[in-house]
Write a structure and sequence with these properties.
405 residues, alpha/beta, Arc Repressor Mutant, subunit A, Nucleotidyltransferase, domain 5, 3 domains, 16 helices, 40% helix, globular
Length: 405
């Protein structure tokens, strides 16, 4: 079925989008408050809000408290169950699908493992089947879906929705994921780099942190980042801003999956940490990890290493601090270049160890040109945090509420 959604066309002008987004961020909110925030006349706001109510986007939900007891303002909310947003975040090993209602309340949340060897066609079929199954379980009709956001690791042409180079491994190249999905579903499909979706989620849904100048670093599977400067998501000439995992930190060092030597990813992923630690054990290093693995070196996990690191095991301390140093070189160089005020860090190692997070922060600050002047706020983000889970949904919200990507 070719794509022919008319949901977005219901919004007739930019003022409707601005008012809808104001209601999304401020609900419950009055017409008067919207007028003040958006610098619009009360008559204009009233006219547009009445249209949004008649079109089913907004609901009046009672009265708000007011100093004027004679005329209490009417509270406005988004009509939560009028429309739905679908998000699919893809990693090398798993696919995570979520569905939220129009008010960004999570209604569906499932994760499934991906087989190790899959190409573009298998990935397309998996995404298609997963979305269809979720819609059936939620009993959602296609004409009530605002869109689906797909977060993909690697280089992505976000305007055309093409996977240019999947996870920098050349496993999937120049694959038109958006076009193929829009032949199946009658709603918009938005495709972007997975870390871009995460920083957009922080920008859209996190009102507690200043993300106007933000570096988001994601360490699940590989090492990627996304950058917002002065409120704008940086993309670059070929959409490759943020590929810090392939910054070279050790010339003539370990071979990376991209084919180069000495990249950050060759040292700073959970897989790299495990392999380096196992090799040290094979060479005869003593460690309490032997008790964790019951003598089976291959069964040692990143979580095992970090747990022993926090307990003071000498080998694990050496290995983890080595990772922290390489990662801190990368982060400090990036901070010195871009001057963000916030660094958000997620990934397996910070998920399992607060000490690792604190160590990276300490090492990074030591390497900055002027730590006191730059004063970067470090934030640790879990894979289960709302802003992380909502990542790919943010593509739908950015396109619909603000008409941008």
């Amino acid at each position: 079925m070719p794509y022919h959604s008319n949901v977005g066309s219901l919004l007739k002008d930019i003022h409707e989008r601005k008012i809808l987004d104001c209601i999304r961020r401020g609900a419950p909110i009055s017409r008067t408050e919207i007028s003040r925030i958006e610098h619009m006349s009360k008559s204009t706001v009233t006219r547009i809000v009445d249209t949004l109510i008649s079109d089913g986007f907004v609901l009046e939900t009672g009265q708000l408290e007011s100093k004027d007891s004679k005329r209490k303002p009417i509270a406005l909310h988004l009509n939560a169950n009028r429309f739905w947003c679908i998000g699919v975040n893809i990693s090398r090993r798993s696919l995570h699908i979520v569905i939220s209602n129009f008010a960004a309340e999570l209604c569906y949340n499932q994760r499934l493992q991906l087989t190790e060897n899959y190409d573009g066609e298998i990935l397309l079929q998996t995404v298609t089947d997963t979305i269809q199954k979720a819609m059936e379980e939620m009993e959602i009709e296609e004409d009530h879906v605002l869109g689906a956001g797909i977060g993909v690791p690697g280089l992505v042409d976000n305007e055309k929705g093409i996977i240019v180079n999947y996870a920098s491994e050349s496993r999937i190249t120049n694959f038109p994921l958006k076009e193929r999905l829009e032949h199946t579903f009658a709603f918009p499909i938005h495709v972007d780099n997975d870390v871009n979706t995460l920083v957009l989620s922080e920008q859209l849904f996190n009102g507690n942190e200043d993300t106007s100048n933000c570096l988001f670093v994601n360490g699940w599977d590989g090492v990627g980042s996304s950058v917002i400067i002065n409120g704008i998501l940086l993309r670059g000439a070929t959409n490759s801003v943020g590929e810090i995992g392939h910054m070279i930190v050790e010339p003539s060092g370990r071979k990376c999956t991209c084919g180069k030597d000495g990249c950050v990813e060759a040292y700073c992923t959970a897989e790299a940490l495990c392999e380096s630690t196992r090799e040290s054990i094979r060479r005869g290093r003593k460690t309490s990890l032997n008790d964790c693995a019951n003598g089976h070196i291959k069964s040692i996990t990143c979580a095992d290493i970090l747990r022993c690191y926090e307990q003071g095991d000498q080998l694990c301390t050496e290995q983890v601090q080595n990772v922290a140093r390489y990662l801190s070189i990368c982060l400090s160089n990036t901070i010195n270049l871009l001057n963000p005020n916030t660094l958000i860090f997620a990934g397996e190692m910070v998920e399992y160890s607060d000490l690792f997070f604190q160590t990276v922060r300490e090492y990074t600050n030591e390497l900055l040109i002027s730590p006191s002047d730059q004063s970067v706020t470090f934030i640790r983000r879990s894979i289960n945090d709302k802003y992380y889970v909502y990542g790919s949904i943010s593509l739908v919200y950015a396109a619909f509420f603000m008409n941008r990507m």
